Amino acid sequence: MSRLYRIAGALAGLLSLSACLVTPGKFESTLDIRADRSFAFAYKGEILASDMGKDAIMGGSTSTDGDAQEDEAENTPTLMQIAQQQKEEDFSDAAKEGTGKSDEAQMQAIATALSKEKGFRSARYVGNHKFEIDYAINGTLTHAFLFPFNIDAQIVLPFVAVEMRGDDRVRVKAPGFANGFDKSQGPAGMGSSGDDATKALNGTFTLTTDAEIVSQNQEEGAQTVPEGKRIVWTVTPLTSDAPMATLRVRN
After folding, report:
1. In whole angstroms, what is the distance from residue 80 CA to residue 118 CA?
2. Helices 103-115 and 78-90 sit at what angle, rounded to 10 degrees?
3. Distances (CA, A) of 123 to 15, 145, 182
4. CB count, 10 Å around CB of 70?
5. What is the DSSP code (8-state) at residue 51?
6. Which of 16, 31, 6, 23 is CA-nearest to residue 170?
7. What SS3 class is residue 5?
8. Using 50, 70 and 90 to split pLDDT, how confident is the model at 116?
9. Which of 33, 108, 159, 180 is the Cys-Cys partner for 240 at CB 3.0 to 4.6 Å?
């Protein structure tokens, strides 16, 4: 499961320690949780990286003393480490010699690296800090699951969080699928990029389960389907309340 967290966290490497935020664009996302704690999660659609400047790409390190290399290793986001490795493996010698790789090339390298990771059925950079993602993974809920996640990031806004609550409850919350989060806590200097990300939010989040639904915040409630119960949240720029549900599962 530790590898699952590393993979799911790769996208959140786009979050810099200075000024970057990743948010959904157009998407379809599904989460299936069984009473036996088995689960399957999928996200297909756009992910937007806001305000990607030089400091964001390089992790904000400006050290020039003898500890520069150590500082860079500590400050470089996980995803940039992946991209750097991919660059060394796939780029030509001529490309390697360049010291001023453009932002666009860095994004391309990230997409190439992600496409090789488990869970990412495809990851394509389409320009303007936008990625087309097809991600799916399954497992057993023995502890929390977040997508995306990176412990090194100062700003963490997971699209979906699944949290174990006591011995027999699971809480699902999707703060990334709403515009109700406190932008004042976002990265400094986002400018208008935060508004652009807000306007781009457009998708659906579907939860299916055969576990008991203790609570949920979708006004139309759960529908009965062959898989058990289904709750569908439609997400738009006007969505202020994050999708949320609590389930009772078996010990």
Report:
1. 18
2. 90
3. 17, 21, 29
4. 12
5. -
6. 31
7. helix
8. confident
9. 180
